[in-house]
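Lab notes, practical 5.
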Amino acid sequence: MRENLSLDELRIQIDRCDSELVSLLAERRRLTEQVGQIKQQKGAALHAPDREAALIAARRQQAEEKGVNPELVEDILRRMMREAYENQQSKLACAAPQLSPIVIVGGQGAMGQLFAKQFKRSGYEVKILDKSQQADASSVLAGAKLVLVSVPINSLDQVIADLPPLDPECILADITSVKQSPLKSLLNKHAGPVVGLHPMFGPDISHWVKQTVVACHGRDENACSGLLKQLQIWGCHIVPMEAKKHDQAMQIIQVMRHLTTFVYGQFLAKQCHTLEELRSCSSPIYQLELMMVGRLFAQSPELYADIMLAQFEDVEGLLASYQDTFEQTLQRLKQGDKQALIDGFDKAQTYFSDSAHTFLAQSRGILNKANDAKVLDELAS
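Output from the prediction step:
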């Protein structure tokens, strides 16, 4: 190959490389689809973490040997893997055929539909019990081996109480974000197997691989193992936890976060700057923050009002502590007390410990994507 190629000639070669990459991606998709079919036939889980870790490590080493940024290679690989998991969703393995038929109470809601679709992909018979089927509840529930309750928090107790008697071996479960009160209602209603689940994701996921589901056992853990196995086959990460400990954790992870995001969104709405003006001069980190705030307000207001109200009394102490911390920081700023601000930073830094550096590294790719999205939006407008 002759040296000193012209810009046009170099661009032609780059286009050729890009075209070859697209062809390789198409071939990789074809292969991963076949892998998905074999996993479905053998009842294997979609996610193989050991295989994934070994693959990424090998390609990173290969990238270093060829003078390519290993971070770039890992980013590409992980994006291809996410695409592969999406492509393997059409037909999934059935881990516990004894769960069929399944009845999803509230199956016309967004999360109910999500679970119904996934169970059907694994070959289960799925029935829906919603308001329109309420008159036929007894016939719909007859012979059910799993009854999954997917209704708003504020109506859960009444919905469970109104259920007709279930078969003794039937599993009764729910997927609400609070666990102590719902689990108590499930146990009071049904003498058979009971488990409380909390999917830590919403109905807009593209696949279930690496999604977290908290499982709070109520009664007959062995009988519920097939349901948890099915979630694992779909690629979910199951986190066993006591209901009380779950709710305490959710007070921080969900309720406090929703409350602070809710307040910040209302604060922004009162300012003189439009969202477009803020985005036009935002850093990548603030662009990402706006995305996360905006994500909340793209959801159902009823849902998030219920989540906040359901545990408000339980988080009053946390809110008081949060408000006190905010006021202390504000006072230090007013006093110009730099050392006190540094001391507060040091305390938080100690809490995060080595994880702070891990989060810093992990967030770089996310921030780059947020900035890319901002620039592309500006060009489009």
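Observations recorded by the TA: The first strand starts at residue 102 and ends at 105. The chain has a mean pLDDT of 90.
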